[in-house]
Automatic annotation (TrEMBL):
Record's signal peptide: none
Domain Caprin-1 dimerization: 2-66
Protein's UniProt name: Caprin family member 2
Source domain of life: Eukaryota
Lineage start: Eukaryota, Metazoa, Chordata, Craniata, Vertebrata
One Pfam family here: Caprin-1_dimer
Amino acid sequence: MLKLEAEKKKLRTILQVQYVLQNLTQEHVQKDFKGGLNGAVYLPSKELDYLIKFSKLTCPERNESLRQTLEGSTV
């Protein structure tokens, strides 16, 4: 039971990090980090660029046609 709870905690952390990284690709989020606005810490452009590149490597964008296919198959 303890092992299962530890695995759940790891998965929850991974999903939280993935969510943050995916949001870094949004322009308004990038502006907030570049300016230290809306509660975001200031990040120099170079560091933000590194995080965005990392995000693209670790969180590939969903293929829209694949998503539509999957949604169609569940109906």
